């Protein structure tokens, strides 16, 4: 399913996670791969525990960070694309 | 035969295990038992973890080692060995106290790292790295400085409230050259494998039976040509976790035994709370040149 601003996204349940210093680390035990999330990325990851529309996510981040909405949307879509490529999230609708 | 101490477990064995310290902790029944008996070639309902290892849904492991024997390791702690006629007693013990110990760790959700480990100022310091990189030689040299030896091959780590190393036994696997360089003799020592110039060297006076907090891990490696030598602390969380996974004994086994989450949390706790260093040295320089630097690094 193609990712767009009206997509609904949610985490896949399998990754294990732990905080190590400033990094939130995910382990996909099936693939044996580690992923490190910085504070901003970890904040997005936390919100994806429940299914969320991309534009709603961008609005939340817009309230939190002083950046242009277009820039936020671009960064969020790029980040979600990477998570999806690693099979860490599911894109619905 | 007296029961032995192995990583906090009381072990009762039908074959002599001279490596182990005698059990003196308490009056509990044996946690682990070793018997000689029939072991099937296939584990009913077992899955192949490798060409030599099967695991079943109850968490039993069956290891078949060509020219040595078959080892059945039940999660209850009952171990049955079917030795092959050509196997030497030292070879049987090599796999029992190596591979089988690693399986027992995974069955219990303990982290088995490939490495030697010595006591330093009331804590444990582990040395990990590929075979031949100097792990056992460092442990030997620290033992000769009067330090306790907690493990040589499999360093067993427990992570509950803090990160602890459970001592295994004070036996070092050393090449003949290392033994002779230390002005020791291979006379009377058992060979690790038939025809191999590697020997089992027991340092019973350096044995220890108390779990100790893990103070530091050193990842040993050979410096490439033109590369500088020295000790460096790893700081990136993913670098540390990847290195710890690479040093874990059969890392995929925790997944098959349903203990992947426990081992991940143990590694994450180490990455958060225990300094991990790399030690790059020239392959032709003796590892003992680094003893003082290692001690100074641990003391910070």
UniProtKB/TrEMBL annotation, chain A:
Database matches in Pfam families: PqqD
Highest taxon of source: Bacteria
Protein name: PqqD family protein
UniProtKB/TrEMBL annotation, chain B:
Single GO MF annotation: ATP binding
GO biological process, one term: regulation of carbohydrate metabolic process
Protein name: HPr kinase
InterPro entries in the cross-refs: Hpr_kin/Pase_C (IPR011104), P-loop_NTPase (IPR027417)
Keyword NAD (UniProt): no
Pfam families from the UniProt entry: Hpr_kinase_C
Keyword annotations from UniProtKB, A to Z: Kinase, Transferase
HPr kinase/phosphorylase C-terminal domain span: 113-163
């Amino acid at each position: 399913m193609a990712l767009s601003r009206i997509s609904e996204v949610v985490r896949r349940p399998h990754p294990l996670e732990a905080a190590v210093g400033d990094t939130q680390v995910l382990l996909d035990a099936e693939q044996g791969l580690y992923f490190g999330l910085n504070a901003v990325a970890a904040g997005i990851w936390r919100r994806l525990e429940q299914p969320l529309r991309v534009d709603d996510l961008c609005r939340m981040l817009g309230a939190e960070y002083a950046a242009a909405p277009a820039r936020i949307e671009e960064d969020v879509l790029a980040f979600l694309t990477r998570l999806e490529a690693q099979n860490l999230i599911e894109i619905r609708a | 035969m007296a029961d032995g101490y192995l990583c906090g477990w009381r072990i009762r064995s039908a074959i002599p295990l001279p490596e182990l310290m005698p059990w003196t902790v308490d009056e509990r029944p044996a946690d682990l038992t070793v018997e000689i008996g029939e072991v099937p070639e296939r584990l009913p309902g077992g899955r192949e973890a490798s060409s030599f290892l099967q695991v079943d849904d109850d968490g039993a492991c069956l290891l078949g080692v060509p020219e040595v024997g078959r080892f059945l390791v039940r999660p209850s702690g009952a171990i049955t060995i079917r030795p092959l006629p050509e196997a030497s007693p030292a070879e049987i013990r090599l796999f029992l106290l190596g591979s089988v110990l690693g399986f027992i760790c995974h069955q219990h959700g303990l982290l088995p790292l490939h490495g030697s480990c010595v006591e330093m100022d009331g804590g444990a310091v582990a040395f990990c790295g590929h075979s031949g990189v100097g792990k056992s030689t460092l442990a030997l040299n620290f033992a000769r400085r009067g330090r306790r030896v907690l493990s040589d091959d499999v360093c067993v780590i427990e992570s509950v409230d803090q990160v602890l190393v459970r001592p295994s036994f004070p036996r070092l696997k050393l090449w003949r050259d290392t033994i002779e360089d230390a002005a020791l003799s291979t006379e009377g020592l058992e060979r690790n494998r038939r025809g191999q110039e590697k020997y089992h060297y027991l340092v019973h006076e350096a044995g220890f039976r108390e779990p100790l907090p893990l103070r530091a891990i050193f990842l040993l490696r050979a410096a490439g040509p033109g590369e500088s030598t020295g000790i460096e602390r790893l700081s990136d969380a993913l670098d540390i976790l990847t290195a710890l996974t690479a040093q874990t004994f059969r890392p995929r086994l925790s997944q098959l035994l349903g203990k992947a989450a426990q081992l991940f949390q143990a590694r994450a706790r180490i990455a958060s709370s225990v300094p991990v260093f790399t030690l790059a040295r020239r392959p032709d320089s003796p590892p003992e040149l680094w003893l003082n630097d290692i001690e100074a690094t641990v003391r910070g």
